[in-house]
Amino acid sequence: MIAQSSTICTSQIFTGIYSSPYRHHRPFRHHRFSRYRSSFRHRKSDIVIQTPLHDKVSANVSKIIDISSPLKSSPKQSCKYEDLSIAQFIRFLKQIKLKKLLSKIIDVRQQNKISYKNDVILQWALTVYFFRQGSCNALQTSLQKLKPNKRTAILKYLGLLEDEIDSFPHRTVVNDCLGRIEADEVNELLIHLFNWAKKSKIFYNHMPKLLSYDIFHICIDGFSVHKYDTPHAVNEKKKNICPYCLPRRHNKGKKNEVTYWMHGFVNVTIVFSGGLQLPLYVYPLKASQIKLEGSASDEELKQESELQAAKMILPILKEKLGKLPVALLTDSLYANEPLIKLCEDLGWDYLIVRQEGSLKTIRRKCDELEGCELYQQSYRAHETIKLKNGNTIERTVKWFNGVTIGKKSYTNVLRFEEIVKDADGNSIKKKYFKTEWLCSKEINKGNCFSLVKRGRMRADHEDLHNSLKNRGFAAKHDYSRANSNAWLVWKILMFVAFGIFELFSFTTLAQKSKGPSSWIAFAKDLLSELLKIPWEIIALSPSLKKEKIQFRFNFSP
């Protein structure tokens, strides 16, 4: 028997059941939950975890501890609880004041006829993306399988218990609510998230990693998500009523004529040299704004859409960002005088790719100057980098300042070539890279290679779209097919969820908890913890128990 004078720390009991010092070195993805399942198999011999927790401890201690072994008194031993990953994520959502932001979005529904507040509905929708569910049906199914006594954790997470509600909103309720929300208000969440990071001094405290060039780099690019063979939203006469469906027609008037509809966005994102990406604005393309014929190619449609959107989006962002130093990174579509003039009017720098077929007069002018002896001696730089595997990288930069573009504007041209050679000195064709940028900054030997690094940061933005399509966010899934506004809000929330999880993924807590697994697996594990671990155990995590907590960030590669 246990001596009455022995002091038992309740955390020793729970930590023995629910935690393991090897949690982050698990060989299998769901190994971390084996300890939870094993502890609940034999309910007759386990602690019944109810509130208040400590009232049940003394009555059940003898059932879970081997009383035949002696226990030493340890009155000074500290009580340590495992800091669960889901607890860290919940605390991070509280840190960014997500609930407060969501509650500010106007709810036009009749308040006396609703069961779930706006913020609950919106967080339910964000949860689909946070935990990489792939569809609202998938989350709905997971919640429906929960027994009533297992719902406390997810109800707490959604904030439903505060309103004494013990059920979840159905996906049809979610879609109905999202269909009534103003999309521009949801778009504002992206700016709020960026401002939170700025006010929290994340950029300032990590300036060498994130702002190594003392400027914010903004990328803008088109993003197609859906293709429909028939209109997805129609009226009584079966005519398309979705304003975001862009009609496409090929082989008009022929037997093989094909008609389909597309959805697309133009997305603006801030990319940082440390790998962080934060979406700033999502602009949905409308059929009424596109002046092209339906028979135009998809590439022509993409180009026209992006140009139209840039003229509208960039002045809006300038107003929201104020005097923030900005450099615009774009592809060759924007290599034209009107956009350069717009950047000058906004007071923004730019690095715009120029391809062979665009601005041919600039190409001819630079070709002429390149043949001059002066330019060959004084307007080029070369560097060679030796790699550990024996390969070498040879980089050559040539530049031309003050080149006229159009009638009133001037630009600076930066030509870059990169050749990778193996240990024997043979060129590796697959790794050959050559491009050209139009730059607002005057180019010299001191800044030419740093400008190259900045221009190549645009590849991170293209990877963001790849993440949304192929890494658990299921961007190609339409989420709400019949309601056009709900569909749009779902898509903007996808970018919001990406931004929130992106910031969380750079915290040291998240990186340690993830361990060697992928971020997709880690995100799904978070939901598994939320559904399988009792709230009483989650609530004991230090991340939730502490009154104040400081999230530290790590932007090292």
Please tell me about this protein's structure:
The protein is built from 23 helices and ten strands. By secondary structure, it is of the alpha+beta class. Strands 1, 2, 3, 4, 5, 6, 7, 8, 9 and 10 form a ten-stranded mixed sheet that branches. Helix 10 runs parallel beside helix 19. The protein is globular and about 80 Å long.
Question: What is shown here, in short?
Answer:
The protein is an alpha+beta fold and 557 residues long.
Overall mean confidence score, pLDDT:
84
Helix content: 40-55%
Strand proportion: 15-25%
Please count the beta strands (DSSP E, at least 2 residues each).
10
What is the quaternary state of this protein?
Answer: single chain
Distance between the termini: 54 Å
Q: With helices defined by DSSP (H or I, 4 residues minimum), what is the helix count? A: 23
Low-pLDDT runs of 5+ residues are: 1-78
Present the secondary structure layout.
Blueprint: H1 10-18, H2 34-41, H3 54-64, H4 85-95, H5 98-103, H6 118-130, H7 136-144, H8 152-158, H9 171-178, H10 183-199, H11 202-205, H12 207-210, E1 216-228, E2 246-250, E3 258-271, E4 277-284, H13 298-321, E5 326-330, H14 337-346, E6 349-353, H15 360-370, H16 373-378, E7 380-386, E8 392-405, E9 409-421, E10 433-439, H17 448-455, H18 458-470, H19 484-505, H20 508-514, H21 519-532, H22 535-538, H23 542-545
Parallel strand pairs: 1-5, 5-6
Antiparallel strand pairs: 1-3, 2-3, 3-4, 6-10, 7-8, 8-9, 9-10
